[in-house]
Design goal:
Blueprint (H helix, E strand, L loop, with lengths): L4 E6 L1 H6 L6 H10 L1 H10 L1 H5 L5 H10 L8 H15 L1 E3 L11 H12 L8 H4 L14 E5 L1 H12 L10 H18 L5 E6 L1
Antiparallel strand pairs: 1-2, 1-4, 3-4
Helix pairs in contact: 5-6, 7-10, 9-10
Length: 199
């Protein structure tokens, strides 16, 4: 089975502030912008919806309302949160991580450690959970964030690693360089960080 990461350049404070904001105007704007995608999601998850899961539109509303959440269907709120992230954020190139198989994220994390990079882990995007009070999905999507400060540390640690790079597998090194590119993009836009979602 192939897995995938999707990463975004986004103002993490602004993104998190939508949870429980009760900003009905923004909610309607997002649902209008992505109405076709909402319909496709409801069609794809029609069985779960028939069993009691919220529609994707209702999940978006619950995020804006700060609940109530049905923990049995955490995936719907996770995907709703990604939709909100997409509204605010800019998609970041992630060719090294979409798709991937097996222990690839752990391999990249190990390569970072080999280079002396401790600021971030790419596996955070797959194995982390959404911000409180959103329920953690039982399976997908995973979610994680790299703050502006973490991005700054990542770039500094990468820049200091030139003498160790030759010892790292070439594909792993290319993936790490891609991550550094995300961090540089965040630093070029003050107040931004990286939000990632794993499936």
């Amino acid at each position: 089975m192939s897995l995938s990461l999707t990463t975004y350049l986004v103002d993490l404070t602004r993104l998190r502030a939508t949870i429980g904001s009760r900003d009905d105007k923004l909610r309607r704007q997002i649902c209008g912008r992505f109405k076709d995608e909402l319909a496709r999601a409801d069609d794809y998850f029609s069985g779960e919806i028939a069993a009691g899961a919220p529609t994707r539109r209702d999940a978006v509303k619950a995020v804006f309302e700060g609940g109530p959440f049905d923990k049995r269907y955490g995936f719907q709120y996770g995907y709703a949160y990604e939709l909100i992230c997409r509204h605010f954020g800019k998609y970041l190139d992630n060719n090294c991580f979409s798709p991937y198989r097996g222990s690839w994220l752990e391999d990249v994390d190990a390569g970072m450690k080999q280079l002396g990079i401790s600021a971030v882990k790419v596996s955070t995007f797959m194995y982390g959970g959404p911000p409180d009070p959103l329920p953690r999905p039982d399976d997908f999507p995973g979610h994680g964030e790299w703050s502006e400060a973490q991005c700054r540390d990542l770039v500094a640690q990468w820049d200091a690693s030139t003498d160790r790079r030759a010892a790292v597998d070439g594909e792993v090194l290319a993936a790490i360089a891609s991550c550094v590119g995300w961090a540089r993009a965040a630093l070029a836009k003050p107040g931004s960080g990286v939000a990632g979602f794993g499936y």
